[in-house]
């Protein structure tokens, strides 16, 4: 059993009262903090049984740190798997999807309301959301099953009785190897990331170590807002870097659609930490399948609600190794990406604005 330890994140102000309900029927959709999107799984048969007391019911809050392709994909996968679990086990699972809009106060309000409503589990997606939900659930010990935390130990999400989840730990060296396999003559690499993203700390350190060992120059461009990301990308273009690396950084991901065309037209391949970047125009990645990660997270949540937290690990690393390439971006860059065929399973995608 995990020891119950938790360091205080920050001093939070008083949370404003919110008016969303954690139980209700309706279509699944993403929502901002003030309107919950709700769904009841296994509605056809289970609702009738539940009325007679024959079917167990569970309430779950799914909390995205913010809205962007990766987190949306995970949230939708969690919801779909909860639906399937409900159907397979003849139970009713009510859930709502919330977005914290990348704001700590908003996340705290969502978490406090979820606890007040007596949810059976909270599934936070991304590091800040997981940290805030862990604080909100401290007194009640409500199970917190996080999703897509690259470094749970650095985020101080380990060793806590009521917390577990899935990790999308990045194999930075593999992405670096892809970069140099595609272009052995790289002289300078740009590192584009956010200082506010805990997910980026270790991968950026790993990238620097890799490049230093090879004697390759690199230039860093941290950015913390959408406008800063655009400006940072422009600086890297002006600096004539040969390639750019970004880890699973939510801030950069949210701005990918605003920068990918300029990078591709400048002949600079953008290697990233998740396939959602690639679907939004980046060149390539090697990482996890976020639909699989979301399903695994939902399975963990159901185990926590039905069997308790005893026996569960601090976290579970989702298997990666899937190489995703944007064929449209590759064409703009004039890159033959067949070299990746010997490095893993290659999945081809095109740019979507989702």
TrEMBL record:
Report the domain of life of the source organism: Bacteria
**Key word Thylakoid present:** no
Which SUPFAM superfamilies does this entry report, sorted A to Z? Periplasmic binding protein-like I
- Where is the signal peptide, in residue numbers? 1-29
Keywords, comma-separated and alphabetical: Signal
What Gene3D superfamilies does the record point to?
Answer: 3.40.50.2300
**The protein, known as:** ABC transporter substrate-binding protein
Lineage of the organism = Bacteria, Bacillati, Bacillota, Clostridia, Lachnospirales
């Amino acid at each position: 059993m995990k020891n119950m330890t938790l360091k205080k994140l920050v001093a939070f102000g008083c949370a404003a009262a919110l008016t969303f309900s954690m139980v209700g029927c309706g279509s699944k959709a993403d929502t901002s903090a003030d309107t919950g999107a709700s769904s009841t799984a296994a509605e056809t048969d289970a609702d009738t049984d539940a009325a007679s007391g024959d079917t167990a019911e569970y309430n779950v809050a799914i909390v995205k740190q913010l809205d962007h392709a990766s987190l949306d994909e995970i949230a939708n996968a969690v919801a779909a798997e909860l639906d399937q679990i409900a159907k397979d086990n003849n139970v009713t699972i009510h859930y709502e999807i919330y977005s914290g809009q990348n704001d700590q106060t908003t996340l705290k309000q969502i978490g406090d309301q979820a606890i007040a409503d007596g949810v059976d589990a909270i599934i936070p997606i991304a590091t800040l959301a997981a940290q805030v939900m862990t604080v909100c659930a401290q007194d009640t010990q409500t199970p917190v099953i996080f999703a897509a935390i690259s470094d749970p130990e650095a985020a101080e999400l380990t060793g806590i009785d009521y917390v577990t989840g899935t990790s999308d730990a990045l194999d930075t060296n593999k992405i670096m190897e892809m970069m140099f396999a595609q272009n052995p003559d790289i002289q300078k690499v740009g590192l584009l990331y956010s200082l506010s993203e805990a997910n980026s700390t270790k991968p950026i350190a790993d990238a620097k170590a890799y490049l230093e060992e090879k004697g390759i120059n690199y230039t860093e461009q941290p950015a913390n807002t959408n406008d800063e990301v655009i400006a940072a990308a422009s600086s890297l273009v002006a600096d004539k870097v040969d390639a750019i690396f970004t880890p699973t950084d939510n801030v950069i991901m949210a701005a990918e659609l605003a920068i990918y065309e300029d990078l591709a037209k400048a002949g600079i391949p953008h290697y990233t930490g998740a396939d959602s970047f690639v679907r939004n125009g980046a060149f390539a990645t090697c990482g996890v399948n976020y639909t699989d990660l979301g399903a695994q997270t939902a399975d963990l949540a159901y185990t926590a609600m039905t069997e308790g937290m005893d026996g569960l690990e601090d976290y579970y690393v989702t298997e990666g190794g899937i190489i995703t390439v944007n064929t449209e971006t590759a064409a703009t860059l004039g890159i033959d990406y067949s070299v990746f065929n010997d490095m893993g399973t290659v999945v081809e995608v095109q740019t979507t604005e989702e």
